[in-house]
Amino acid sequence: MESLSLRVEPGLRKELKNENAFSLLSLIGNTPLVQIRQMTKHLRGVRIFAKAEWLNPGGSVKDRAALRIIEDGERSGKLTRDKIVLDSTSGNTGIAYAMISAIRGYRVQLVVPANISEERKKALEAYGVKLIFTDPILGSDGALIEAQKIYDTSPHLYFKGDQYNNPANWQAHYETTGPEILFQTNGQITHFIAGVGTGGTLVGTGRRLKEHNPRIKLYGVQPDSGFHGIEGLKHIETAIRPGIYDETILDGTLFVKTEDAFEMAQRLAREEGLWVGPSSGAAFCASLKLAESMGWGTIVTIFPDGGARYPEYCLDCEKQKNRLLVKHPMLIPSPP
Ligand SMILES: Cc1ncc(COP(=O)(O)O)c(C=O)c1O
User: Fold this and answer.
1) 161: which of 52, 171, 173, 295 lies 20 to 30 Å off by Cα?
2) What is the C-alpha to C-alpha distance for residues 253 and 286, in angstroms, rounded to an integer?
3) Residue 329: pLDDT band by 50, 70, 90 thresholds?
4) Domains along the chain?
5) H-helix or E-strand spanning residue 284
């Protein structure tokens, strides 16, 4: 009888021996760069590209930072098998921690504002995460303060990822997102634009790009007020300042209204086939405004997650504005 053993090519045999070769973790990063074509037709000499970060296995840009934070914790000995991974996160980092921890065998506890979407709660529960809810009015800062309190009561139980202050967050982008963009644009990028949550994406990618070519301009994108509905982004002036956020490397900050971010996200779905989240809408809104003021150049921005993370929005912009008014009673849409 013929042997059932498979004939394995020598190259593949080497791959099979490499523990990471078939791990979900090896799929983090190396996301495609997509050109926005229809919505930029009126531009002469300026191209806009976006990194499709929702194609990371955990569904967002935060896979990159979370992986680096966990690996750094392991390397430093601060994260051991008996520790619980603890952090405050409005969702995407939590999902990334949950996915990576499931693979690496860690338990996870996350402090989140109680108004995060039902879908995010379900996703986190599916991964087996323990959720601790804080007052939605206090936003991501309320969750941040509560996570610190929990850690302070029993530091020996937890590994605190501390995405707002952990240099591993921006280093992930310095080592992956930055070089990927340089490679994918063949070094032709002239402007980099990214939303500010922790600042990790902007600062890490920005540092790498400036190091390569100091003439590359860097812009952060923030909501135009402390009361906004763009999940994942921070209005730095009215929030707790992330320790890793370094605005000295920036050439400027572009402020975006919540309604404009939502409207732009809807247009990206309908005109470009890119069903992305509101912070991608904000990033594109800022990119387009900047592009319209430029003569020539190559803008690269980041689309952090997909629209499927926000199933209640995008179907109808008017409905969305009403939903935001209920969720954030102080958010007053500006007059037309
Ligand atoms: C949807 C979304 N957009 C943008 C960001 C900003 O990324 P960073 O924390 O690297 O500034 C985040 C971060 O959590 C996010 O979840």
Assistant:
1) 52
2) 9
3) very low
4) 28-60+177-327 (3.40.50.1100), 62-160 (3.40.50.1100)
5) helix 278-292
